[in-house]
Specification:
This protein has 296 residues and is α+β, with helices and mostly antiparallel strands. It is built from seven helices and eleven strands. The strands form three sheets. The chain has a six-stranded mixed sheet with strand order 2-1-10-11-9-6. A two-stranded antiparallel sheet has the order 4-5. The chain has a two-stranded antiparallel ribbon with strand order 7-8. The protein is elongated.
């Protein structure tokens, strides 16, 4: 399993290291409705694409309830979510808004590229500042330049023909589908209200989820003490883990090798990027009094 930890950065601040995250799909976005470069079409997924593989422990959980509560059978731990229902719903709503805004961000990116490509008429044309800055942000969190298949833009004056512009957009297809395919309200959640567990290096744990399990756990003693954006970020991170079987690893934003070797299945990348697309800033885990903060 993977965890959400608080960790100090070099400047003394604490930053989020939230493992096993939630994926959100706004009700207004039709699943598998994927915009193409010059229009829209319904994408037909491969046999395994977009499937949610539910663990045996979660198979009997209803996926129709907006807020399914599955209690952990541990007599020594208070697992009642009732006292935290309002906080969880607020975090879900904020995370859902972030995902909706991230999807909108990609729509704007497509329009910018499409308009520039039409002007190029197969001639080389500079990409401009807006496209360049958006590409840089995507590359920072998802390393899309490694899959571009041509030289990445080095400035707003980099030039591409129509095919090049199309690649700048199409290289984001996998990422866009993950945002469209995540569904926060279909996830079951557990509350562990006992002392927050620690990882191997003593980091406090805020949440956890097994990849593809369709459920996640919040360690409320630590999670509920965070800011509203951080609660949403942790919840979203854990949803991404819970939604997809290949989101089974983590590279955190405070680590020097972020976004890691597999950034397009890195829950941290999706949660952080969604926060940035929606609010213009990320979220940070607050160091709690008496807690041990370390990089896990």
């Amino acid at each position: 399993m993977m965890y959400a930890h608080a960790s100090k950065t070099e400047n003394g601040h604490t930053s989020a290291s939230n493992h096993n995250s939630l994926f959100i799909q706004p009700s207004a976005i039709q699943e598998n409705a994927e915009p193409t470069f010059f229009g829209h079409q319904k994408v037909e997924p491969s046999p395994n694409e977009g499937k949610f593989f539910v663990s045996s422990a979660a198979q009997n959980i209803s996926q129709t309830s907006a807020n399914v509560q599955r209690q952990v059978a541990d007599a020594t731990t208070n697992t009642d979510c009732n006292d935290f229902q309002e906080a969880i719903e607020a975090a879900e709503n904020m995370a859902r808004e972030w995902v909706s805004d991230a999807i909108g961000w990609f729509e704007e990116y497509r329009e910018l590229i499409r308009n520039r490509a039409r002007r190029s008429e197969n001639r080389l044309l500079i990409i401009g500042r807006d496209i360049y800055e958006r590409f840089q942000l995507l590359d920072q969190h998802f390393n899309i330049s490694s899959e571009l298949g041509l030289n990445s833009p080095t400035s707003a004056h980099s030039r591409y023909d129509t095919e090049g512009f199309m690649r700048l957009y199409n290289v984001t297809a996998f990422i866009r589908r993950r945002y469209h395919g995540v569904n926060i309200t279909s996830k079951a959640y557990n509350c562990d209200n006992g002392p927050c567990p620690t990882g191997e290096q003593g980091a406090e744990t805020l949440g956890e989820a097994q990849a593809g399990s369709q459920e996640y756990t919040l360690f409320t003693s630590c999670w509920n003490s965070q800011s509203e954006p951080t609660k949403a970020g942790v919840l979203l991170h854990e949803c991404f883990h819970a939604a997809f079987t290949n989101f089974n690893h983590d590279t955190y934003s405070f680590e020097s090798n972020y976004p890691g070797d597999n950034p397009q299945t890195n829950a941290e990348s999706y949660a952080i990027f969604a926060a940035l697309a929606s609010t213009g800033s990320t979220y940070r885990i607050i160091e709690l009094e008496g807690s041990t903060i370390s990089v896990e």
